[in-house]
TrEMBL record:
UniProt key word Signal: no
Pfam families assigned to the protein according to its UniProt record, in alphabetical order: Na_sulph_symp
The protein's name in its UniProt record: Solute carrier family 13 member 1
Gene Ontology terms for molecular function: solute:sodium symporter activity
Length: 577
């Protein structure tokens, strides 16, 4: 019997080592991107059956979960929103609402971008808003050039008699004025005045050209505002970014008896933190690039200088190009509102939700049920009629086109993320089956001697640092199977560590390669890596500080984090070989 027990223990240790090896290989490939992330995510499907950790059928079932159904429904909504330009109408309308003051204009772009990224992917939001921002920035710079050109014409004495008198009285002062309005080197000077049609050369070897340093700083500010707000907005909803979805699915799989994480509870938990981070980031970026001028920042007048009026005009023109709101946009907006309301009202917590109507099937209907219900409607509701002309010359309708087609859906569906997330689920299942999670938990149990707040801070800072060099989905997928056993080993509510770590996974603000929105705005040529590092470091610090503040102010009472829950397993310390 003793010999048999020894053999079993040896086999168990071997499985733990083989699973750890698989985890190490996948982690290295994710960090170095030697293979595409989604290809690396397929390795558990190959290695687990060969090592005898899990049968191939069980590994394959991990690659398609409830998460994927939720993702499909959300992508149906995003496809329709972008196809019918509803996202552009929302963004421009929100920017028009805040006025033309530079500080408030920046906040308007940040607010609209953050709102869109709550429902669309961070990448598509940044890609959509940046051309609008670029047009506004060009118009501002061109407007200043036109104003200075007009002033230079006045100074030359060809228009304003008052200025002619000044010139005759004090020629030296006129020369000084002309000297001040000389064009900056590298810009055209045609017929004695600055051309108002400056060209911003993107991604060229000569770099961008700006009239003044302030213009350059303004372009940097607006670019970074879009990149950071698209990431911050994604924090607020479970569907806002893939890291939130991965956490929710992993958590619900590991702790099936806990029903505390859903769309409504996540929104209530993360929305205040996202708002605070957004406002502090706005102030930080404003101070870093344009200086912190209270009088200018908080001047809410709707009029302004010629530059501000020109800015307002280009936004107005972009909005007018959209024309009146169309039937397709109205239907998409209605379905969008219906989806959000059903998500919030499914199980709000403080009152019974509509899921109580199906009390005989508790827990059967999830957020993915809502997403699929609304998503299917996009394929059923007609967008326009298809007509043809008969031989007699009569036009008749013979079919209709739905709001979205399958080809359009396929072009938007992030299959790489779907496979990547599936690989993460397979890794988590393998860690459980092999006993690696239990082994890690026992080895990490000595950390229980540290204060809980210090453990949370260390894990948050570690996650924030790692996500700068690895993709956000890969980071959260890699660390969840480690952090959850850590919380269990030190007898702390798993949400206490997992919630701040998940939020901090999105704080990839330092480098252009840290996440796609950063790369998109960097490609416009206004920024250098040093610019992004300086700005991103401040936003990272603010983000971690706000998450820690929110954790102890409202997340602890909301989820009763000081109590070890009954739905989490109790791990007794064991001596393992």
């Amino acid at each position: 019997m003793l010999a048999l027990a020894g053999v079993c223990r040896s086999n168990q240790s071997s499985m733990e080592a083989e699973c750890a090896y698989t985890l190490f290989v996948v982690a290295m490939f994710w960090l170095t991107e030697a293979l595409p992330l989604s290809v690396t995510a397929l390795l558990p499907g190959l290695m687990f059956p060969l090592f005898g950790i899990m049968p191939s059928k069980e590994v394959a079932s991990a690659y398609f979960k409830d998460f994927h159904l939720l993702l499909i429904g959300v992508i149906c909504l995003a496809t329709s929103i972008e196809k019918w330009n509803l996202h552009k109408r929302i963004a421009l309308r929100m920017v028009m609402t805040v006025g033309v003051n530079p500080a408030w204009l920046t906040l308007g772009f940040m607010s609209s971008t953050a709102f869109l990224s709550m429902w669309l992917s961070n990448t598509s939001t940044a890609a959509m808003v940046m051309p609008i921002v670029e047009a506004v920035a060009q118009q501002i710079i061109n407007a200043e050039a036109e104003v200075e050109a007009t002033q230079m014409t006045y100074f030359s004495g060809s228009t304003n008699l008052g200025l002619e008198t000044d010139e005759s009285v004090n020629g030296h002062e006129t020369n000084e004025r002309k000297e001040k309005t000389k064009p900056v080197a590298g810009y055209r000077n045609e017929a004695g005045k600055i051309s108002g049609k400056m060209e911003l050369e993107k991604n060229s070897g000569t770099g961008n050209k700006y009239r003044t340093k302030k213009d350059h700083m303004m372009c940097k500010l607006m670019c970074l505002c879009i990149a950071y707000s698209s990431t911050i907005g994604g924090l607020t909803t479970i569907t806002g970014t893939s890291t939130n979805l991965i956490f929710a699915e992993h958590f619900n799989m590991r702790y099936p008896d806990c029903h505390c994480i859903n769309f409504g509870s996540w929104f209530i938990m993360s929305f205040p933190a996202a708002i605070i981070i957004l406002l502090l980031s706005w102030i930080w970026l404003q101070w870093l690039f344009l200086g912190f001028n209270f009088k200018e920042m908080f001047q809410c007048d709707k009029t302004g200088t010629a530059k501000q009026k020109a800015c307002a005009e280009v936004i107005k023109q972009e909005y007018q190009k959209l024309g009146p709101i169309r039937y397709q946009e109205i239907v998409t907006l209605v379905l969008f509102i219906v989806m959000a309301v059903l998500w919030f009202s499914r199980d709000p917590g403080f009152v019974p939700g509509w899921s109580a109507l199906f009390s005989q099937y508790p827990g059967f209907a999830t957020d993915s049920t809502v997403a699929l219900l609304v998503g299917l409607l996009f394929f059923l509701i007609p967008a326009k009629r298809l007509t043809k002309t008969t031989p007699t010359g009569e036009t008749v309708a013979f079919d209709y086109s739905p709001l979205i087609t399958w080809k359009e859906f396929q072009s938007f569906m992030p299959w790489d993320i779907a496979i990547l997330v599936g690989g993460g689920f397979a890794l988590a299942d393998g860690c459980e089956e092999s006993g690696l999670s239990k082994w890690i938990g026992n080895k990490l149990s000595p950390l229980g001697s540290l204060p809980v707040w210090l453990i949370i801070l260390i894990s948050s800072l570690f996650v924030t640092s790692l996500t700068e060099v690895a993709s956000n989905p890969a980071t959260i997928t890699l660390l969840l199977p480690i952090l959850a056993p850590l919380a269990e080993a030190i007898h702390v509510n798993p949400l206490y560590i997992l919630l701040p770590s998940t939020l901090c996974t999105s704080f990839a603000f330092l480098l252009p390669v840290a996440n796609p929105p950063n790369a998109i705005v960097f490609s416009y040529g206004h920024l250098t890596v040093i610019d992004m590092v300086k700005a991103g470091l401040g936003v990272n610090v603010l983000g971690v500080a706000v998450v820690m503040l929110g954790l102890f102010v409202w997340m602890v009472p909301m989820f009763d984090l000081h109590t070890y829950p009954s739905w989490a397993p109790t791990i007794a310390n064991e001596t393992l070989p």
